[in-house]
Structures are given as C-alpha cells and as structure tokens.
Amino acid sequence: MIFPDYEGGSIVNLMRSLGDACGAPPLPYAPLHDAKVSLGGTARNIVLLVIDGLGYNYLQQNGAGGHLHAHLHGRLSSVFPSTTASAITTYLSGLAPQQHALTGWHMYFAELDAIAAVLPLRPRGAGEFDAPPGALSRRLFGHRPFVDRLARRSVFVSPQAIAHSEFSLYHSGAAAVRGYRTLPELFGQIAAALRDSVEPAYIYAYYAELDSLTHSHGVGSTQVAAQFALLDEAFGAFLAAIAGSDTLVLACADHGFIDSPPERQIDLAQHPDLAATLVRPLCGERRVAYCYVRPGQTARFEDYLSEHFGHCLDAFPRRALLDQGWFGPGAADPRLASRIGDYALVMRDDWTLLDWVEGEKRHRQIGVHAGVSADEMLVPLIAVRCDA
Fold first, then answer.
1. What are the residue boundaries of the structural domains of the chain, listed by start?
2. pLDDT for 288-314, tens place per residue?
C-alpha cells in the first residue's frame, strides 16, 4: 500500500512549489522537497504537461532510451484516490482532495441529491441536469482555479472535445484556452503559446490518449506501447523546437494503471444481500468504492464484507479516512464527508468492484486505477530547462 506523501513528495506539493515560482500566495502545504528540481526564479516561462495515466513504473519499464525517461528526475505520489477526477482537480486548483472535495468519477452530491459523473457533470445513468451553463460548477465546486492565483499570464491547452466543457471552463479561470485534436497539435499549441507571449507565461497542457487506451486495452498492450512511443517522439521534437526559449518544461501525471482480469471483477448484482444494505448505488471508482449504508444495516454490511470479501478488499469507515489524512492535510471542506459515503472499500491486489444503474451503458475496463498500489499511485516527475 502506497499512501500519498503530502509532506513534500506528492503532486500537491508540486503545485505549491509551482505557485511559489509564479508569484502566488503560498498554498497551505509543504513545498516540493526534491532539491533536484528547483522551481523558484528559474525560467521566464513554465510549462506543465499532465499526461493522463503515465505511471512512474510504466515509464521506468518502457521508456529507457527515450526523451521522457532521459529527463526523469524522480517520482511523486498522486493523491487519494489516484484517479483523474481527484488528481486533475489538484493540478487545476492547487488543492488536495481534502480541500477541493472531488473524490472520484461518480460522486454523490447532497446539493443535488443525485449521483453524477463529475468531469462531464452529468447524472449517473441517463439524462442531463436541467441547469444553465456554468450553474452546476459554481454550485458544486467551492475552490478557486490555480491559474487565478498566479501573478502571470496563463494558457490552457486541452483536447478540443473538453476544452470548453463546464468543468474545464470553471478551472481555466482567466487563462487563454487553446484546443487541439492531434498529438502534433498539442505540442504545436504549446509552442505557439510560448512564441505569442510577450510576458512570462504559465502553460498547462493535458494529454488524455494514454489513459483511454489503457482502460480499453490494458497496460501491456501494443496499442498503449505504440501511443507512448508517438508521445515520446513528439515530446523530443517539442523540446528541440523551443530550445533557447527560457522555459522550464515539467511533465507529470495524475495516476498510473494496473490491469484487472475478469475473474477478479466483482459485480454487485451477484451479491444482492450486500446491495440491500446500501441506500444508493456505489460511488467513486472500481478500485475505491464509496458505500452509503442504510440506517440499521451497518452490522449486516460489515459481516457480509468480512465473510465474502475479506481476501480482496479493506473497508475503511469515513471517520478513519478523514482522521488518517488520506485526502490530504489540514481542515477539510465541509462537503467532503458527504461525498465519501459511510465506508470506502479499497481493493487489494488487482481486484475491482462495480455496479450498474438503469440507463448506464455497460463497458469493460481492462486497465484500472484509483487504488493504492505503487503502479497506480506513483507518477513521474520530468523536468527540462530550455535555457535562453
């Protein structure tokens, strides 16, 4: 089990140090403790490239001889849970999940009395929320965008399909937004933003293709290997193109991956006695499931888990997660407790737990994340100085 290193070795601490380098008021976390990557007073421009799904162990095992691996400075931990909804929000807010209170792909929002997929902001199952543009994000998110803390011009470079989504627009704040469709366009947009900037710039860029391919095909698939090779080549070409631009390029990730074989995928529909103890469907992720237990059913819930799943998961009461600082240090957002259920089921080894609701399209995931294994929790820290 790998616990997030919020004391100086996580992506939360990276964002504190990035904020310091860009003139932001100090965030309430320790700075990054890796002295090999000094971010203070270093370069005119700073680029942060977040590669969704690129685990540290994957890069170590598959990247030798490449451009990304050549500039690898170390590893960081993600946040808990090690998933896009929580970790990307840390990159976009500068806050740990303890403060931004986004805790997984599916979340129960007491404000709506509904379960929603937080990144697309749509109900679980079928339909859409009836709300004007921007209304849901303002109601459900209480944090300030990271870029709005900075004393410099900011640019967001995102896939065209999500660049103007409600989630993205909320978190891009006052930044200029540039969309892209292809891998060459991603790096072309970053390079163009650097060329066009007449003042020091902070550029956040997000790449999602590795994540989607790994979910569909698995960590060791030829599809993921081929896309990683293309990414690595494009990264090297980008560094050559911006040589002499006085830019610090950082590349990191939100989480890594493991594969979960079909025989280790637990469908809640096969356990109706357990489902009967729950007041609503599972929330969170397949590797970390938040359970909302019916009043008076706690003992039955715990007994069923112990009898049937003691070998494949650990059940943590909400209070234990909060007291032990799983979501980060400091005072929690008041909404966090309601968003993590009564228990979190943290899956061991390569087990997963899932359920389905009416109107939900069933799909298989080979590659999964959100858990506390090293392959999921550890991400690379890549740093390159393109000096003037």
1. 11-258+373-386, 262-368
2. 999 999 999 999 999 999 999 999 999
For domain 11-258+373-386, give its CATH number from 3.10.20.90, 3.50.50.60, 3.40.50.300, 3.40.720.10.
3.40.720.10
Burial readout 66-94 (b: 16 or more C-beta within 10 A, e: otherwise): bbbeebbeebbbbbbbbbbbbbbbbbbbb
Residue 76 has pLDDT above 70, yes or no: yes
pLDDT > 70? residue 37: no
**40 pLDDT exceeds 70?**
no
Q: Is the pLDDT of residue 35 over 80?
A: no
**Could you tell me the pLDDT band of residue 41, with boundaries at 50, 70 and 90?**
low
Residue 34 confidence (pLDDT)? 72
Pick the CATH number of 262-368 from 3.30.70.980, 3.30.1360.180, 1.10.260.40, 1.20.1250.20: 3.30.1360.180
pLDDT above 90 as % of the chain? 92
